[in-house]
From TrEMBL:
Entry-linked Pfam families: Glyco_hydro_47
Molecular function (Gene Ontology), one example: mannosyl-oligosaccharide 1,2-alpha-mannosidase activity
Renumbered residue ranges of the record's region Disordered: 100-122
Catalytic activity, reaction form: N(4)-(alpha-D-Man-(1->2)-alpha-D-Man-(1->2)-alpha-D-Man-(1->3)-[alpha-D-Man-(1->3)-[alpha-D-Man-(1->2)-alpha-D-Man-(1->6)]-alpha-D-Man-(1->6)]-beta-D-Man-(1->4)-beta-D-GlcNAc-(1->4)-beta-D-GlcNAc)-L-asparaginyl-[protein] (N-glucan mannose isomer 8A1,2,3B1,3) + 3 H2O = N(4)-(alpha-D-Man-(1->3)-[alpha-D-Man-(1->3)-[alpha-D-Man-(1->6)]-alpha-D-Man-(1->6)]-beta-D-Man-(1->4)-beta-D-GlcNAc-(1->4)-beta-D-GlcNAc)-L-asparaginyl-[protein] (N-glucan mannose isomer 5A1,2) + 3 beta-D-mannose; N(4)-(alpha-D-Man-(1->2)-alpha-D-Man-(1->2)-alpha-D-Man-(1->3)-[alpha-D-Man-(1->2)-alpha-D-Man-(1->3)-[alpha-D-Man-(1->2)-alpha-D-Man-(1->6)]-alpha-D-Man-(1->6)]-beta-D-Man-(1->4)-beta-D-GlcNAc-(1->4)-beta-D-GlcNAc)-L-asparaginyl-[protein] (N-glucan mannose isomer 9A1,2,3B1,2,3) + 4 H2O = N(4)-(alpha-D-Man-(1->3)-[alpha-D-Man-(1->3)-[alpha-D-Man-(1->6)]-alpha-D-Man-(1->6)]-beta-D-Man-(1->4)-beta-D-GlcNAc-(1->4)-beta-D-GlcNAc)-L-asparaginyl-[protein] (N-glucan mannose isomer 5A1,2) + 4 beta-D-mannose
GO cellular component, one term: endosome
Pathway linked to the protein: Protein modification; protein glycosylation
Cofactor(s) needed by this chain: Ca(2+)
E.C. numbers: 3.2.1.-
Alphabetical keyword list: Calcium, Disulfide bond, Glycosidase, Hydrolase, Metal-binding
Name the UniProt record assigns to this protein: alpha-1,2-Mannosidase
Amino acid sequence: MSKSLPYSMKDVHYDNAKFRRRSCLKLITQSVLTSKKHDCTSCSTGKFLVLLMIGGLVYLMLTHASSSDSVGRIAKDMGTEAGDHLITNGSSSFARFWRKPPRLPPRLSPDEMGSNNSSRHEAEKLNVASKWRARQQGVRNAFIHAWSGYKSYAMGHDELMPLSQRGVDGLGGLGATVVDALDTAMIMGIDEIVSEAGSWIEKHLPERINEKGQVNLFETTIRVLGGLLSAYHLSGGQQGKNLAHKGPEPVVYLENARNLADRLLTAFTSSPTAIPFSDVILRDNTAHPAPDGLSSTSEVSTLQLEFNYLSSLTGDPKYSTESMKVLEHLKTLPKVEGLVPIYISPNNGEFSGENIRLGSRGDSYYEYLLKVWLQRRENNLTYLHDMYEEAMKGVRHLLVRKSSPNGLVFVGELPYGPNGAFSPKMDHLVCFLSGNLALGATKGITKEVAMKANLLTFEDLEHLKLAEELAKTCFEMYSVTSTGLAPEIAYFNVEGNSEGAADGGNKSSKYVHDIVINHADRHNLLRPETVESLFVLYRITEDPKYREWGWEIFKAFEKYTKVGSGGYTSLDDVTVLPPRRRDKMETFFLGETLKYLYLLFGDKTVIALDEFVFNTEAHPFPIIKGSSGME
């Protein structure tokens, strides 16, 4: 039998004495009324004491009110600081006696708290957006400065030499800078430059195409043909974007593109194999191989985006048919885990030599395997995606290494094939691979969206990881130098490697002993590959660090390559201050480098990666829907 508890139900209603603040009057009254030892209200004496206590409290309250009024009147009459002091002291004595519990600040409801947090978040987003708009404007100003130098000293020539203030024609004399820069001006909304470049193309390019001599098939296709096709779309051709408010009618760009492509087709039709010759004589409509008889693997396999898009626009399949024969033929050739040598013969259609690398003469072969598949996904060209996936496995197995002592991930070379020694050499050109891996993983949508939709395979995640690691390495190739600009070629210290100790000059860099920069490799050509990958990675991962890295690179370009009279110049040596200047502004600085920086700092919906594919010269083409004009 349980014993009764040592308290009664009355105690349950004790008004939370430990936790609730109560007034002095209530405390005294409750103590008197609930006393267990003596019920004060049951006798006349107790009742008298209770009445006396209540009367005293009433007296104190009336006295306080009266004294406060009199003090206020006296203070009003005095009208001095002493009066203010009197008011304060007169009221404070009773306040000390009759002290109320402190008031706690009001607590916000969850909805109100969410509203406040949302407001702060919106303000922060506005500040961030404002910062990047200002930085994007800085890139736009740089483009205007580069164009002003070209227009003043080299208009109509292929390239500007900004230090000697003259133009040179190293790409066949088709005004390559004009065409390469045009769609950048359209994207930036610089109508004056669009008008100047468009007018030049309308007046002078047809004659140049008909009368000029030798041009390189690859360079002319990616820069001039690609630039014309992109300008056609962005100026509103065939229901395009119509970003250009000035300049000629869009058909002008398409007509010049078709005229040029008809002549370039000679490189395909003149060859005894599916592999085109490397050079074309425009005025004669003839073609021939390079002096050594070989073509670069990257060059013959980096023509298809342009020719496919031209077929789509014109409805004529001949451009696509000839260019796609190259990839169909390459599919049949033997490879090393998907990797290919950097030379191929148009005479017998076979690879030449064993040199395997993703730098010069090899790079864009791997780029276009993915991008041509993306451009024509509705045509079910699965063999291209299979070739790309196999090649990326080969890259990870045979070419990826880590540097010593700090473990930078890099892509090396096999100059003597898979059975020869590995070379820890990495061209700046290889930095395209980071963005390409990310693009191949998500097909242009953000990582977050792809993850939520369960679209990423294990291989895709591995490619994204490698993409981010390579982007880190490429950025450190910049930050390790005295100028903050990358060399053309870097070597990496690895275990057992005896490369020289020539570093980038920035002794404060953590990676100063990981990256070796030989004297012959210290030049910078204003190349775009790193900022290209930063742009793609920011669009896909949404990680703001890629924007910040891009900003650091842009500041270095501004500081060390800008020429006061107009234009920007290549550098001879990025490891010394001040750097020696080379006197050359490549067309791709306007066509690629500044375009990618502008897009990196801007609205993520402009030229969306799941709607457009960029050719290797950064000219965006819309992804082809259906099979119009295709074989």
